[in-house]
Write a structure and sequence with these properties.
It is a single chain. The protein is built from nine helices and ten strands. Strands 1, 2, 3, 4, 5, 6, 7, 8, 9 and 10 form a ten-stranded mixed β-sheet that branches. α8 links the parallel β8 and β9. α3 crosses α4 and α8 packs parallel to α9. Helix content is about 30%, strand content about 15%. The chain is of the alpha/beta class.
Length: about 300
């Protein structure tokens, strides 16, 4: 268990005493804050399945990208505080509604509390659904080891291949090393995606690559790294949906969508490297601006 009295859950290692009211770079305090929860059909097909992924969008973020589509809750503090028991009850409710898994979106700064809630879910309801650890990839290995019970399926971003881009986009010059180390660790820990006869993922790694404007070469660099280090049987999800929102419209170099040429360069690279498992997005796919029909947190 990593103490919240000296938080070092993510590579920023602020050391904030979150138990005494201090907050670090991510802005997270003592009590879990969540923005929305519900059955979600927007993940990769073996994760969403037919009934949906039981998803909790956690508030705050350790990365805080300047182009974040979720900025109202990742950086704008939106959401509601919930107790550990309330979080457990949400997981139990999602399971009762038929969720294929329990999907933790941006969970890093809440790992100790989520771990406590997971114990309650097992003890109080006997539920053992796979957890999906849905992360920006900005992780620390000792922390991942400590909370690997929450990582049956690891859905991790590999967002940058250059420290310069990571510094510009997310003020995290060390992101490339951290995210690659985490992907390597996850590959050793959970291995390739294990999909049951029902088409639903039970365990394994999915790497997500969001193509960024002017940075198709970086996405290709990342694909080369995956092929070289993990092998090309890894499930890879290449996304074209970058939208210049939040601070991006006012930031040169980040203020436009990805072009079709840029996206095609990356999907060609995927093919050239022999990746056969995974998904690409149809160019021009947009993500919804709001999460209609989702439950608000109902208080602690
Ligand atoms: S999780 Fe938040 S408080 Fe903890 S080290 Fe990271 S940025 Fe700092």
């Amino acid at each position: 268990m990593v103490p919240l009295s000296h938080c070092e859950l993510c590579p920023r290692r602020c050391g904030a005493d979150r138990l005494s009211g201090a907050t670090g770079f991510c802005g997270a305090g003592k009590n879990v804050r969540i923005y929305r929860w519900g059955l979600h059909d927007g993940e990769e097909p073996p994760v969403s399945g037919t009934r949906g992924s039981g998803t909790v969008f956690f508030s705050h973020c350790t990365l805080r990208c300047l182009y974040c589509q979720n900025f109202p809750w990742s950086q704008g503090r939106q959401g509601g505080d919930v107790s550990v028991q309330r979080l457990a009850d949400i997981f139990i409710d999602l399971a009762a509604r038929g969720a294929h898994n329990l999907n933790l979106v941006t969970p890093t700064m809440w790992l100790p509390q989520i771990s406590q809630a997971a114990t309650l879910v097992r003890e109080q309801a006997g539920i053992r659904l796979p957890f999906v650890y849905n992360t920006s990839g900005y992780e620390r290995i000792p922390v991942a080891e400590a909370y690997s019970d929450l990582m049956d399926i690891v859905l991790t971003d590999l967002r940058y291949a250059s420290p310069q881009s990571a510094a510009e986009g997310s003020r995290a010059r060390d992101y490339v090393d951290a995210s690659r180390a985490f992907a390597e660790w996850a590959w050793r820990k959970v291995g390739p995606l294990d999909i049951g006869s029902d088409g639903i993922a039970r365990r394994g790694l999915i790497c997500r690559i969001l193509v960024l404007p002017g940075r198709a070469a970086e996405a290709c660099d990342t694909l080369h790294w995956i092929a070289r280090t993990l092998g090309n049987e890894v499930h890879v999800s290449v996304m074209s949906q970058y939208t210049p929102v939040y601070k991006a419209p006012d930031t040169p170099g980040w203020d436009r969508p990805v072009t079709l040429e840029e996206y095609t360069r990356v999907t060609d690279c995927l093919e050239d490297l022999g990746f056969e498992n995974g998904w690409t997005q149809e160019y021009g796919t947009e993500t919804p601006e709001t999460l209609h029909g989702w439950e608000m947190p109902a208080g602690g």
